[in-house]
Structures are given as C-alpha cells and as structure tokens.
Automatic annotation (TrEMBL):
Belongs to the copine family. Residues 1-20 are annotated as: Disordered. This is Copine-8. Keywords: Calcium, Metal-binding, Phosphoprotein, Repeat.
C-alpha cells in the first residue's frame, strides 16, 4: 500500500557512531560504536502547500531522505501517511532517527500530491522540498524548525515545520543488584570467585558485552554490588530484546572458568524482586553429559530501580546556546603562505588543512548557535602597521568586535589575515584560552557553553601558562578542542588532553577533563576524499563535547530550563490514510 511499504524510522543496519568514552568496565570496551547518542522522533507539519488538484485540495505525503557521510547519494529513509484533501497537513506518522551530536546528518523532505495507489513517486505531483540538517532542527528554539518549501521556480510552495522530540527510553538508567546461591565449585582448594558478564543481543543474533560485575572472592553464594547501566547499553531501548548473563569463576591467569548462563530481558527484570527473577544457571555441556543435572546454581535479582537522566538535548531544547570560538596558529613554522609547501597555502582549488579542520568542526557546531556570529582569533603573528607580535588578535582586524558571520565569514577573515599579517612566533595558547575563559566566567548559569577550537602546527612554547589556564577553565562552562596539523611531533599536546592523566598546574588538578586533542593526519582519507576526512575528524573531536557539557552542569547542579510550550497547529484537518 502506498506510503506503507517502508515504515518511517526504519534505519539502514550497520550505522556506527556514538560516544566512545561513556563507559568501560574492567578490560572490556563496553559500548560498541553502534550505540547512538540518543534517538529523536521527528514530526512534520506543512502550511499553505501548493494546490495541484483541480476539483479538490492536494492529498499530501512527506518523504524523508538522508545522505551518507562522504557520499552525495540521497537514500529514502521513510514516508508519512497520505492525508486527503488538505493544504495544511499535520502528519501522524513520525520519523525516528539516531542522533549524534558529532555527525552532520543532511536531510531532505520531499512533498507530493498523491494521485493514485502507486508507490512510485514519479507518478505523483511534486509539491516542493526542504533541505536541512538534523542538528539544525535540534538546535532551533524548542527543537522546532520552520522553513519555506522550495523547488518549483516562481511558485510559493508554503512552509514546513519539523519538530524533534528525544525518545524517553534512551535516557533511562537502571540500578540493579544480584546475588547467587549454590554455584558450582570450580576451585580445587577453595570455593569459586564468581562474577557476572551481561550481553545484549544484536539484530543478527550475535551478542555484545555491556557490563561485567566485580569478582566476589571465595564463595558459592555471592552478593554483588549494585551497578548502574543505561537502558541503551543494556538493550538499546528494546524492552523485549534478549539479555544473556554468563557466570564465571575468576582465575588470576585470565582463563576464567565458565559456570553457566541464563537469559532474560529488560521487561522481565523490570518486574523487580519476585519469583520471576530467580534464574537457574545452566551449563549446556554439563547438561548434555549428565542425566541428573539440574543446574549450576541460581542467580536472583535483589533490586531494580529506574532513573531518568537529563540529557544534552534537554539543555539545548531549554535554550542553552553553544558559543564557538576559533583560534588559528600564525607562527612562522607553518611556512610561507604563498608557497605550496606551507600549511597555510591558499590553494584556489581545495581547502588547506586549517580550512578543513575549521569547516569540519564549525559546520556542526554552528547549528547550536542561534546568531551564527563566531569570534575568530589568531596568535603568533606580527601585525601591521608596527609589526608588534600578538597572541590574541581578531582575524577580521576589529579587536572590539572579532565576530564573523557563520563559518563562511570565519574562512573569509582567515584568508584576509594571511595576506596582511607576518607569520612569526612563539606558539602561545594561554592568551586565547584566557580570552574565551573571560566570557565563560561571566555566564555560569547554564544558559551558554563555550567551545574553543585551536588549530596549530606544533610545539607549544608556553606549556606552564597553558596548563594553568586549562586548570582554571575546567571550572567554567567551556571545552577546548586542539587540532594538530602538519608533520610535527605532538607529544606535549597529549599531555594537555587529560584522558590518561588528569592535567594539573602547581599542585592543582583540573576539576574535569575539558581538552580533546587530535592530529589531523590521522583522519586524512587515503583516496583523497576530503569530505570523508572532515567527517571523521569532526566525529572524533566532537564526540566528547556532550559528556563534558553534562559534567559541568552536573557539578554545578544546573538543571535544564523548561522547553518552550510545544507548537500546536492552528488548523485541524480530518486525517485519512490509504
């Protein structure tokens, strides 16, 4: 039946992305890269569509297309139902999409007037289309985007309103505790040292590890500590998906002995402590060998508590703005900008590494900044007219107002600066970090969050001052992304990225990890596909921002502002489906 052959929200399998650092348990990498940051539901309404029917009004349908990263090809994602005889449809069927802050998801909404039961779109009248990104919808006030429909020259095609709503199941975590009784004895001299390993099942029947408990030593009746896990990690939001739990006896040499296993589901576990949540631990090999085998012990759920987490999107929907500032390295080690060997070379046919890094990150962040005005700074250059060295100058030449309009404005100011300043040195980061920190220090109420992108070719000269600046900034609503371009050794930068050892200055440790460093050379696509290189870079450097953002809000006890009241369409039309 037309409009029903592909459910809205049906996703192509194998979509990857997500927050790689959300959790890790023991020596397992818990979250495989396929868990989305969250799922959002898109609702579509139109006003004043073109009327293509002679004796009645149009019978509209909306078809959503998505575009693969590094690929211009549009793929159909899903269709709404058809609504008869209206120019102001409020489509009932929603599109459910995976949302990743760190990815640019291009969307195209096409509208047709349906004239027959044929699923072939060419058999129906085209009413226009709208292009946007998923970030643009989510980043609009109240996550509600209103745009004109275009595509038919010389005609006003009406407007489309798309609203994004985060799905609740993605935000729940559960706190669970288990105990076991009469587990099989596996150790020769003592009792077993049992631990549990949880796996969620995948669409193809395989299993992915999602949690491992601690080991309880020398007992056949262990009580494990309560643990917290997101519902997304446990079952990807599908309450009936199989969860497999394996019981092992820990061995020092890593060759842990398998005691047995059982399966359950989120729905079963959510019944809490009851006779339904006492599980027989079965060892299939033993069961096959021994006729009198009953089980290898039992595992009992002691408690099950659901907690709803506030999410990054709650704050964005409540109006929190993300302010983006860029700082570019103008030191002499980049090479003469007029020479093709320079990292600042202005090639008329393709972006240089600075331009690629700036566009890759900026084009995603700009969706979350309503005025699209970005301060753009440079450091390490001699400025006209007197040749003084500056480590904090406005790329547009206006220190009172360093703002550029959109990423295109930043690029323009960057190219203009290259023609007017003299590359010099040294490479000092502290002044630009302190510049953004001054702004961040003036708004600590959660209404704004600042992201500073530093693009540099190399070795930092003011390490002690930069560490001090980062430790101070870790108390403020800001994150710092450093992209290293060119062939230099970036060992010192790794020290600033506090993933392994939290950064400190004069005995004070950073309150939270706010720096993400990546060398651009790790992302360059070998086939020369710059779109792919930029998408990979953006994905990696932006993946940590939502968690850094939330860590600031949590530490400060800042709750999201209530979202503006939902949009209620002024016209209600009788809706029919074919």
């Amino acid at each position: 039946m037309f409009g029903l052959e592909k459910p809205a929200g049906q996703q192509k399998p194998g979509r990857s992305g997500g927050l790689p650092k959300m959790a890790s348990v023991g020596d397992f990498n818990v979250l495989s890269s396929s868990i989305p940051a969250t799922k959002v539901e898109l609702s579509v309404s139109c006003r004043n569509l073109l009327d293509r029917d002679t004796f009645s009004k149009s019978d509209p349908i909306c078809v959503l297309y998505t575009q693969a990263i590094g690929n211009k090809e549009w793929r159909e994602f899903g269709r709404t139902e058809v609504i008869d005889n209206t120019l102001n449809p409020d489509f009932v069927r929603k599109f459910i999409m995976d949302y990743f802050f760190e990815e640019r998801e291009n969307l195209r909404f096409d509208f047709y007037d349906v004239d027959s039961k044929s699923p072939n779109l060419s058999k129906h009248d085209f009413l226009g289309q709208m292009f946007c990104t998923l970030g643009e919808i989510v980043g609009s006030q109240g996550s509600r985007l209103e745009k004109p429909i275009v595509g038919i020259p010389g005609k006003k095609c009406g407007t489309v309103i798309v609203t994004a709503e985060e799905l609740g199941c993605c935000r729940d975590s559960v706190l669970m505790q288990f105990c076991a009784n009469k587990l099989d004895k596996k150790d020769f001299f003592g009792k077993s040292d049992p631990f549990l390993v949880f796996h969620r099942s995948n669409e193809d029947g395989s299993f992915t590890i999602c949690h491992k408990t601690e080991v309880v030593k020398n007992t056949l009746n262990p009580v494990w500590q309560a643990f917290k896990i997101s519902v997304r990690a446990l079952c990807n939001g599908d309450y009936d998906r199989t969860i497999k739990v394996e019981v092992y006896d820990w061995d020092r040499d890593g060759s842990h002995d398998f005691i047995g296993e059982f399966t359950t589901s989120y729905r079963e576990l959510s019944r809490g402590q009851s006779q339904f949540n006492v599980y027989e631990v079965i060892n299939p090999k033993k069961k096959g060998r021994k006729k009198k085998y009953v089980n290898s012990g039992t595992v009992t759920l002691l408690s099950f508590l659901i907690e709803t987490e506030v999410s990054f999107l709650d704050y964005i929907k409540g109006g929190t703005q993300i302010n983006f500032t860029v700082a570019i390295d103008f030191t002499a080690s980049n090479g003469n900008p007029s020479q093709p060997t320079s990292l600042h070379y202005m090639n008329p046919y393709q972006l240089n590494a600075y331009g690629m890094a700036l566009r890759a990150v900026g084009e995603i962040i700009q969706d979350y900044d309503s005025d699209k005005m970005f301060p753009a700074l440079g450091f390490g250059a001699r400025l006209p007219p007197d040749g003084r060295v500056s480590h904090e100058f406005a790329l547009n030449g206006n220190p009172q107002n360093p703002y550029c309009h959109g990423i295109d404005g930043v690029m323009e100011a960057y190219y203009r600066s290259l023609k007017s300043v003299q590359l010099y040195g040294p490479t000092n980061f502290a002044p630009v970090i302190n510049h953004v920190a001054r702004y961040a220090a003036s708004v600590k109420d959660g209404s704004q969050y600042f992201v500073l992108l530093i693009i540099t070719d190399g070795v930092i000269s003011d390490m002690a001052q930069t560490k001090e600046s980062i430790v101070n900034a870790s108390k403020l609503p800001m994150s710092i992304i450093i992209v290293g371009v060119g062939p230099a050794e970036f060992d010192a930068m790794e020290e600033l990225d506090g993933d392994v050892v939290r950064i400190s200055s004069r005995g004070r440790f950073a309150e939270r990890d706010i720096v993400q460093f990546v060398p651009f050379r790790d992302y360059i696509d070998r086939s020369g596909n710059h779109v792919l290189s930029m998408a990979r870079l953006a994905k990696d450097v932006l993946a940590e921002i939502p968690e850094q953002f939330l860590s600031y809000m949590r530490v400060r006890g800042i709750k999201p502002s209530p979202a503006p009241p939902p949009y209620t369409p002024p016209i209600h039309v009788l809706q029919t489906q074919i």
